[in-house]
Specification:
- The chain is mainly α.
- The protein is built from 11 helices and no strands.
- Helix 6 packs antiparallel against helix 7 and helix 9 runs parallel beside helix 11.
- The longest helix has 27 residues.
């Protein structure tokens, strides 16, 4: 096994920069974190993107590969890279429902209100999937469920339009959480007393 790894590392070391980058993209796509790490150690570009702006971090996030996501971030991957549609790695993780990857990327400093070219936020993507648990996670991370996309529709309205049964069950909880967090942020910013409203009655 060690001999095989040494042989692979030797082959990788002889690659040109562009070859290493393309190989990195392939290894991440194949979910081979050990090979991806070897390539990064040998100087592959952790922020390598294809012609559509798709980065290796997009691929790892879309695949739900938490370990590879963490490795890429440790090597300096930009969690806010967007492809030509304005989709970031965390947007892909939200869309695919990978909660652990979403947490990792949000903890790496990703903006919870990032919007794509159509104005869709992470919360819109979660609402489109009817994933109210993800919506709550995003609101706790600073996401605003009232932000509107370019069609003038908020994430809460998206949830209401697509999943009316979930809207009535969870929307008050989501909005209540958002209002409580917003109130606490205002209090913290002004040094005043904010009233926390509990909508879970």
């Amino acid at each position: 096994m060690k001999i095989a790894k040494r042989k692979i590392k030797k082959i990788m070391a002889e690659m040109t920069g562009p070859e290493k980058n393309q190989r990195l993209a392939r290894e991440v796509s194949r979910r081979r974190g050990d090979h991806a790490r070897m390539l990064l150690d040998l100087g592959a570009d952790v922020n390598y993107r294809d012609s559509s702006g798709w980065s290796v971090l997009h691929t790892a996030a879309c695949n739900g590969d938490a370990g590879i996501v963490q490795t890429l971030l440790k090597f300096g991957a930009d969690p806010e890279n967007k492809n030509e549609n304005g989709w970031s790695p965390v947007y892909m993780a939200v869309r695919e429902g990978f909660s652990d990857v979403v947490s990792i990327l949000l903890n790496a400093g990703t903006n919870a209100n990032m919007q794509d070219v159509d104005g869709w936020t992470l919360l819109h993507a979660a609402a489109y999937n009817g994933d109210t648990d993800m919506m709550i996670k995003l609101v706790r991370a600073g996401g605003d469920p009232t932000l509107k996309n370019k069609s003038g529709i908020s994430a809460i309205e998206t949830l209401e339009n697509l999943y009316p049964e979930k809207y009535t069950d969870r929307s008050q909880e989501i909005i209540g959480l958002y209002l409580n967090i917003s109130s606490l942020k205002r209090e913290d910013a002004t040094g005043g007393d904010a009233q926390v409203v509990d909508f879970n009655i």
